[in-house]
Description:
Elements lengths: L11 E3 L7 H6 L4 E4 L15 H12 L3 E5 L4 H11 L3 E2 L8 H11 L6 E5 L2 H10 L3 E5 L8 H12 L13
Parallel strand pairs: 1-6, 2-3, 2-5, 3-4, 5-6
Amino acid sequence: MKRRRSNFIADYTFERVTSIPLEFLREVGVTGVILDLDNTLTRWEEDEVPADIAQWVQSLMDAGFALVILSNGLRGKQLKVSRQLGVPLVVSLLPKPFPLGFGEALKTLGVPRENAVVIGDIVFTDIWGANRLGLKTILVEPVSPIDFTGTKIWRFFERLFNLRRSARRGGGE
């Protein structure tokens, strides 16, 4: 497992998932992608995936990447988006950042840990949880300014400790 300056700092940052080029993922050795749902693929307050994001997801599948959704969100929304995109959903007994869900997502992907990346919008769930397991991480900006009440607390601490950044250049900073 590679050593990081902080488990709270993403490997890379991009504005949105659609800003992440497939070539970039290949260059950093990714073959499997664990995707967050709320404010990464959809607006928190909606359950429809925007067309550009749906096209990006489809382009990943067409290019042979293995994909899975891992979300702490509402089950009904998770199932709807999973069906809409044709991407498997991992349902875990313990929410992110606990390792159980990430481990199940890796099993579903069927790729080695070093070839997986977690893409999400929250440092304290998506990035911290994945970094603790030695997974590559990409932090994206939230799709919507509207957040779940608990997420607003995480966002406050992200700003307070300047955590919305990445450890390496090469992403979409």
